[in-house]
Amino acid sequence: MKHGMDRRSFLNLGGKVIIGSVVSSTAVLLVPNSIKAADKGDNDTVNWEQVWQQQEWGFAIDTKKCIGCARCVKACKEENSVPMDEEVYRTWVERYMQKTNGQMSIESPGGGLEFTPRNEEDVTKSYFVPKLCNQCNKPPCTKVCPVGATYKTGDGVVLVDRKRCVGCGYCIQACPYGARFLHPELKVADKCTWCYHRIVKGLLPACVQVCPTGTRVFGNLADPDNPVTPILKDRIGVLKPAMGTQPRVFYRDLDQGVV
Amino acid sequence: MAGYVFPNELEVHWRLFVVIYPYITGLVAGAFIVSSLYHVFGKKELKPVFRLSLVTALSFLLVAPLPLLFHLGQPLRAFNIMWTPNPTSAMAGFGYIYGFYLIVVLLEVWFIFRQDLVKYAGETSGAARIGYNLLTLGAKDVSESTLALDRKIINALAVIGIPSAVLLHGYVGFIFGAVKANAWWSSPLQPVIFLLSAIVSGIALLALVYTVSSYFRGKKIDRECLLALNKYLWAFLLAAIVLEQLDVMQKAYESRATWPVLHALLEEAIPVTHALQIYVGAAIPLVLLLIARWNKVSFKMSYWLTSLSSLMVLIGVLSMRFNVVVGGQLVSKSSQGLTEFHPQAFAGEGVIPTIALLALPVVILAVMTRLLPPWSGEEQDVITTPEKETVVAS
């Protein structure tokens, strides 16, 4: 894939800088210990600001392509150690069914992992919508955090510092999208990071990696050949724009019934 | 309403401990306001309860942070809120506002009881003597000039205490009212509603502590004082319930996209506690309190009516806290459904530990009134009178 190569070549230039700076930052938690050990020593000169200037992550969802297989939900839970059996999700898939009586039926059993085939006659249209953290430009979650444990990185991702979070749950209340939860084992706030630990190494987020239909598209908007920009040139929508959060997950062909 | 809730909303995060936190701070703020009505606003009829109101405020204030602490996922990191506060977070103000207010109340209690402490240190012996001596902090000068200075300081503290109490509770209302994601919470009226209901609950608590403690001590109830408490309770209760209902009325009338689910919340999810808030906690007490002040009603009757109303108001305000804190979380942010709340007996901020946390300040109050009897304004020579006469006398 073209965009994958481009990111890789980009990282060849800045890879050491990025990895080194990851070590020096609060995101150090997200990096495997082996990398930490390997790059220790030359991280003092890393300038995060400089690194962030060269990348701005973008996420687009082509809603018409989603088939509701929920491989993304499973991959996300495995990749990010989110307990598989608990009702907590960094990403989930919703099924919408517009009934002939005008009612919209929405469901997301097990975050989409427990979808069962439906074949109902009174349905006029039906579609799936994947959900995840919108990494808002104006995130209400970071605003309300009493200890500054959740914050926005320079390349546009909202993260949670697990060593600082007190687990008060205010950010969970503040998120209009239901994207946050209290991690049942760690007792700290948790949410989708667009797999920050993967993207800073040039990999795709786990959900994007496993999506069999290309519904989920991810890239570096600073890279002219990224796969997200063409979608952004199409007719797109975001979730709950009236909230003023300026969400940054862009949906192509978003139906008005989507909540 | 079956509807749809986001998968992460199946569990309610702020549970019973977060319900009783604003309840307890509200009682503190309200009780303190009563002492201020006496000190700052010169309502001399409240003299019999002004010391009691401060001791009550302190007892509840000491417990106020506990439910929050136990609620945290990482209670050991609680002090992060003071070491690294986030300036844009309303919640980050808690440590400072609480700490400041605690100092103000402690100082005021100390100055008010200093003369008593010196007296007790002189009268007692053994451990009690040592204890009282320590509590005087060595300030044993009770000459008229130092007592005059004490009174000046007390007045200053009472003045500082009012905005502190208002801030302590108003900011709790802001924590809820400023969450735009939550259609049930989001309202600029929320801090005002929280403050008014706080004052209401504090006066009701004080009226009840006053009548119950007088009953058990076999002491005469001061008619003027009780009717004054009744009057303030009625006025603040009316203001509180009007604003609470105004908020709901406006939401109903505007009928935004979120109204159907809010309506379902009231009708299907919290109808019982909502009825407790409106009827038991406000409508009925408003009538009973009025009857109690009617001059054709005997003082005994007005004593019982005021006490009963106070108890009902306390239940109503607790219900209101539940309806706001838990009710707001039952509304899915999808606006398409309601989630469910199932309180447990012990685990997960269960009912029993919640009751224990609510009882703790009452125990502290009982102990504190033993160590520092706050029954001022009573003639020292009043002999225990039979209860019947106590309540009828006027």
Outline:
The complex is a heterodimer of chains A (259) and B (394). With 259 residues, chain A is α+β, with helices and mostly antiparallel strands.
Task: Describe the model.
The complex is a heterodimer of chains A (259) and B (394). Chain A is α+β, with helices and mostly antiparallel strands and 259 residues long. Chain A has a domain at 66-132. Chain A has helices at residues 2-24, 33-39, 48-53, 71-79, 140-144, 170-174, 196-199, 206-210, 228-232, and strands at 57-62, 91-99, 104-107, 123-132, 150-152, 158-160, 181-182, 189-190, 216-220, 236-237, 249-252. The longest helix of chain A is centred in the first third of the chain and has 23 residues, at 2-24. Chain B has a single domain (3-375), classed as Formate dehydrogenase/DMSO reductase fold. In chain B, helix 2 crosses helix 13 (351-371). Helices cover 71% and strands 1% of the residues of chain B. Chain B is built from 14 helices and two strands. Chain B has a two-stranded antiparallel ribbon with strand order 1-2. Mean pLDDT of chain B is 93; it is low at 379-394. Chain B has helices at 16-39, 47-63, 65-71, 80-83, 94-123, 126-135, 144-177, 190-217, 223-254, 259-269, 271-293, 299-330, 351-371, 387-392; strands at 3-4, 336-337. Chain A binds chain B through residues 87-89, 92, 94, 104-108, 110-111, 131, 140, 142-149, 164-170, 172-182, 187-189, 243-244, 259, and chain B through 3-11, 13-14, 71-75, 77-78, 80-81, 84-86, 88-92, 94, 175, 179-182, 329, 332-336.
